[in-house]
Structure formats: C-alpha cells, structure tokens
Specification:
By secondary structure, the protein is of the alpha+beta class. The protein contains one helix and three strands, in the order βββα. Strands 1-2-3 form a three-stranded antiparallel beta sheet, with no helix packed on it. A hairpin with a 5-residue loop joins strand 1 and strand 2.
C-alpha cells in the first residue's frame, strides 16, 4: 500500500502555534490554537485522525485532579545523578545539541 498502514492518521507537531501535518496524501502547513485558549474552543491538532472534530477545551473542574500535579519544569543535568539512566540520556541529548550548534556555526548559519 505504500503508506505504512497510516492512511487517515495524521502526525502532528504539538507545541507550536504553526506547524505541519503529514498524512498519506502529502503534507501542509496548519495553524492551531494553543491549549491555553478559552473554554469551548477547539484544541486543533489534538485529534490525530482525519475523521471527526478536534476536542474542545473544557473547564478546569472537568479534568482529573492528578493532571494539575504534573511537573512542567525542565530537568537540569545538575539535578540528576550519574547513576541514573535519565542522566546519561539527558547528557547525550545536550551533547548532540551542542555539536549541532557548533556545526551550524562552522558553516556560517
């Protein structure tokens, strides 16, 4: 079939107000609302199938209590122990990012 079984399923980039959508037929640029919109507004990009509408933002009271306990702080490498797998994963990611930045600067970009 050539689409890897992904016909009708969108892959979306969440986290930016402008992004691209790829599906079996091609890709296009889309603009979607942030999750911090008003109650009743659609959260564009949260529905990953091609059928049906995007879900609507609900009132805070309609979400489970544990949702508000999730941490949104970035974890710093200094806060992790070298004995943890997360430390080495983060260190590897930071090294890769640093190498990419140096390579970009060396090319004049």
């Amino acid at each position: 079939r050539g689409d890897g079984g992904m016909a009708g399923v969108l892959r979306r980039s969440f986290g930016a107000s402008v992004g691209w959508v790829r599906w079996a037929g091609g890709c296009r640029t889309v603009r979607w609302a942030s999750a911090s919109g008003s109650v009743g507004e659609p959260v564009m990009g949260a529905n990953y199938t091609t059928e049906g509408p995007d879900p609507l933002i609900k009132a805070d009271s309609e979400y489970p209590d544990w949702l508000w306990d999730l941490s949104t702080e970035k974890i710093r490498l200094e806060d992790l122990s070298p004995e943890d797998k997360a430390y080495w994963k983060k260190a590897s990611k930071l090294k890769l990012h640093r190498n990419n930045q140096e390579s970009l600067e060396a090319r004049g970009g």
